[in-house]
Amino acid sequence: MIKNHACPLCGCLCDDIELHIKDGIVTDVVNGCLLSSGKFRSPGRMVTPIHREGNEWKETDFDTAIRMAAEMFAAAKRPLFYGWSGTSTEAMHIGLEIAEEIGAVMDNCSSECHGPTIMAVQEVGHPGCTLGQVKNRADVIVYWGCNPIAAHPRHLSRYSTYSTGAFRPEGRADRTVIVVDIRESETAKLADIFIQVKPGGDYALFNALRAIVRGERDVIPDTVAGVERSVLFKTADILLNAKFGSFFTGIGLTQSRGKYKNVRAGIELVDELNRHTKYTLTPLRGHWNVDGTNQMFSLAAGYPYAVDYSRGIVHYNPGETSGVDILAKHEADAVLIIGTDLGAHFPRETVAHLARINTIVLDPFISLSTAVAKLHIPVASVGLDAEGTAYRLDGVPIHVKKAFNSGMPSDEVILSRILDEIRKIKAEQK
User: Fold this and answer.
1) What is the pLDDT of residue 298?
2) Phi-psi group of 165: left, alpha or beta (phi > 0 → left; psi -120 to 50 → alpha; rest → beta)
3) Domains in the chain, please, with CATH?
4) Which uninterrupted H or E stretch holds 237?
5) pLDDT at position 429, please?
6) Beta strands of 110-243 (E only): which ranges?
7) pLDDT exceeds cutoff 90 at 30
8) Cross-strand pairs, 21
9) For 306-321, what is the mean pLDDT?
10) Burial (CB count within 10 angstroms: exposed 0-12, middle 13-18, buried 19+), residue 43
11) pLDDT at residue 24 is higher than 90
12) Distance in angstroms (rounded) separating the CA atoms of residues 84 and 88
């Protein structure tokens, strides 16, 4: 039995998981949500690399697979490394070394989820805090454009709405919950106030609330983005009367009309509220280490995502150097997919392009990306048979331990060997 284990599933990175293990298999997961249990107990792990010969898959050994991957990347003119949000920051650092060595583009999942949030933060700052502060202090909690019950099942019970804290001993009774969304989600059904905004109306709604907080109620029309003025006045009064309030924002803001301007408007509302009381804003990050990608990329490359090394110096221009744009324009001729599944989430045409080029997958399991890959190298899974560092959605680093030894190589080991092989190939070519 292993106690206080971190769960490598969503950005909450709950570190109170208890695992029961027998013969290298997790038999029971205590404290975890249903999604967590599924992650720890997933069957069907791959143990042997496979490569495509014509229309058939052939098994190979790790040495051969690593050499094949290195040759593909060394020969590529526009390589792309995408994903990283489902692996350790240690593996990301090695990936950045490879990208710099061969002039590749390094992009992570945030370019398709909370990348706009990062762009907003780059413009107006980030009034954030740890989840511990929310748990202990927040008496008003706002979920805007997100549905944590579905995406972060333990967020409400462990860190916010239902959790008891030093200054909120009654838990739910000490808190007012506001949900803003285009439809009544599972989280909205539990809220004290649910505000249904018209699709694409978030920017207007943020600015209307900001105007009210500034004392300019007379400029507010009868309705804003489908929300009545009286509801806005009531909501603004609740926000102003809070002792400590926390906004949690989701991809309902970042992937709808307005993009990063929505988040910027939200941060500016928080700044306005901070003239009267105390407020913070935290994006609800999805993958368990997507915040780690932004931390590591920024540390090592200077930019949080969409990092392009092809010029010999780091170039960053989301919309041009983002993975989906490079694939949509058919620029990439070799792609590494790690810590995500492009086949399941990217547009159809970009996935079709993956099938036409040298696509390599590093993943413990068969995925939809495997269907379009030339090579799939299985690896150990961080949190099960590998360990590493991850960053919780509030930026707190957590060491994710391994539960057992399987003998499978980790992402870090495979990437290190690919880097060594690439350097050997380049030395041979001189």
Assistant:
1) 97
2) beta
3) 45-112+289-429 (3.40.50.740), 115-283 (3.40.228.10)
4) helix 229-240
5) 87
6) 140-144, 176-181, 193-196, 223-224, 227-228
7) yes
8) 26
9) 96
10) exposed
11) no
12) 8
